[in-house]
Amino acid sequence: MDQILEVVALLLGFIGWVMVGVTLPNRYWRTSTVDGNVITTSTIYENLWMSCATDSTGVHNCREFPSLLALSGYIQASRALMITSIVLGTCGLLAALIGVKCSKAGGENYVLKGRIAGTAGVLFILQGMCTMVAVSWYAFNITQEFFDPFHPGIRYEIGEALYIGWCSAVLAIAGGACLTCSCKMGTKEKYPLPLHSRGTVYSGAAARSQAASTYGRNAYV
């Protein structure tokens, strides 16, 4: 494996994993501004866990969603996918730290380390895919409700958390792809040279005879 490519892939996977951890608790998954007079103008924003409102005076109030079963199906699915993404990223990061060549963990069995690194790359790709599906699905529902002329509720727009989620998914997929492509899954261990390829050892008269035939009899006195 190219060690530089491994380190780059590990950094991309780590940054993607950190950004997933930032995306999940971020409150601005979707936002909406309710205009009125100066006093009643407020900003409403939501994530996967709660809904918050802030008025023009700076006072904000948040309430958690009361029931899991009462939530929309895409919110429940996005929760599950984001949590799965963090778990996969954690496992991938640990496997990558063991599998890269510059790491002392795992000994010097480079065949095994290459396979662990390849597994870490697959885990990073799965992490990115879970994040991408969760964020894109959530954004699709926002745009669908926004452009629906018969939608009776508040029209939300895409919040900053979704953009962070998209960036984290791209970084995780790129890091996983680099790590998977760089590892040599089928590399064989270097075994000792076979007997027929080793140098022939001569002893005693056989060695002198061989030397005489090579350099001439006058080479030895």
From TrEMBL:
Pfam hit, one: PMP22_Claudin
Transmembrane segments: 7-24, 80-100, 121-140, 160-181
Domain of life: Eukaryota
Keyword Transferase part of the UniProt annotation: no
One Gene Ontology term, aspect cellular component: plasma membrane
UniProt entry tagged with the keyword Protease: no
MF GO annotations: structural molecule activity
Stored InterPro entries: Claudin, Claudin_CS, PMP22/EMP/MP20/Claudin
Subcellular location: Cell junction, Tight junction; Cell membrane
Membrane topology, from the record: Multi-pass membrane protein
UniProt keyword terms in alphabetical order: Cell junction, Cell membrane, Membrane, Tight junction, Transmembrane, Transmembrane helix
Principal location: other
Family assignment from sequence similarity: Belongs to the claudin family.
UniProt function note: Claudins function as major constituents of the tight junction complexes that regulate the permeability of epithelia.
Protein name per UniProt: Claudin
Organism this protein belongs to: Gasterosteus aculeatus aculeatus
